[in-house]
User: Fold these one by one.
Assistant:
Number 1:
Amino acid sequence: KAGVTQTPRYLIKTRGQQVTLSCSPISGHRSVSWYQQTPGQGLQFLFEYFSETQRNKGNFPGRFSGRQFSNSRSEMNVSTLELGDSALYLCASSKELYQETQYFGPGTRLLVL
Amino acid sequence: SQQGEEDPQALSIQEGENATMNCSYKTSINNLQWYRQNSGRGLVHLILIRSNEREKHSGRLRVTLDTSKKSSSLLITASRAADTASYFCATVLNTGGFKTIFGAGTRLFVKA
């Protein structure tokens, strides 16, 4: 089985722009979670999607949003980028909602200049 | 503050030695998980221990859980250079929705 894939792997944007990141979960997995990882704040939960609905949300501003498609693929969007949004964005999938074991993708490294 | 906090922050050992990392958490849990992350990549799930378990083994990994002290430890025996990575503990909080909370991690460096 193919693992979780994320595209693009690297991205450079400037302040004020917006960005969309994509995540394809493992085949058969219906839950997708997103995390932001920075040296200062560590790994922080952004949101979780299941059956095309956001089920859980972390403490991030409304500039961070996401969606899930009927094939379980997910995208996250960050609008009006700030320098502090520079981070590794990780996507994780699991079979069902609230699954204990998550399978992570390689991440998208975003640099905001 | 984070639900899970690991210590030490960094650990450097020789190949063949054992490495022990600790994790403390604040609220009651159903389970605790350990993940490994190689430099700047995705996380790999290592082991899950439930709140009614005290110890669990998986290959060279041994995890203990002390719910009275709200702490867990991960022991890697006979370490190898390939074990060089960051190790994170994770717990799930139910705050009107389930969120996986990761600790700050322990950076392990195994010298060949």
Number 2:
Amino acid sequence: EVQLVESGGGLVQPGRSLKLSCVASGFTFSNYGMNWIRQAPGKGLEWVAYISSGSSYIYYAETVKGRFTISRDNAKNTLYLQMTSLRSEDTALYYCARHGHNTYYFDYWGQGVMVTVSS
Amino acid sequence: DIVMTQTPSSQAVSAGEKVTMSCKSSQSLLYSENKKNYLAWYQQKPGQSPKLLISWASTRESGVPDRFIGSGSGTDFTLTISSVQAEDLAVYYCEQYYDTPLTFGSGTKLEIK
């Protein structure tokens, strides 16, 4: 069974940093592209970042480019999102999501981890 | 960026009724080389993570009831639920994966009368 379990969220002040993790199980993590997607309270879905299976290709939404860094450790089956210079508008539930094999829709999602940016 | 527009924003139907919801993209999602539309539909029930229902505009995921039907091509797409059940209460999102940034529609909230 595919499982994606996020952690690392919490309350953080504007301008500070936070690092999210997503531990994957139930599939060969190193074979799949992975993503972070967020959902502000009561709002829709916003794709944040993508990393290819071998980390060769990385893409970001313009809203986070230069502030967030996506990375992965295939030996640890873990996806990361390093978030810096956090803003109130980054407040959201952050989901880890897997791309389908050789495609770019999201076939499995984690349960999400909440990040609240507030003073 | 490809803009995805979903209508209506919310819809209330009775169990057993047919419902349709629309998703329009600002540019074609049909890739000429493979004749595939790079469009997916997701269901997000209250308090849950989104779940993939349909990929390639019309391919149902394994385990998704056949009352969920995806159709359309190019820039106009539709999700139809042929006979709504109480458990279909959710927000439905379309997503284009033709190009980055990957973008979602704003969702259609389905309410059961």
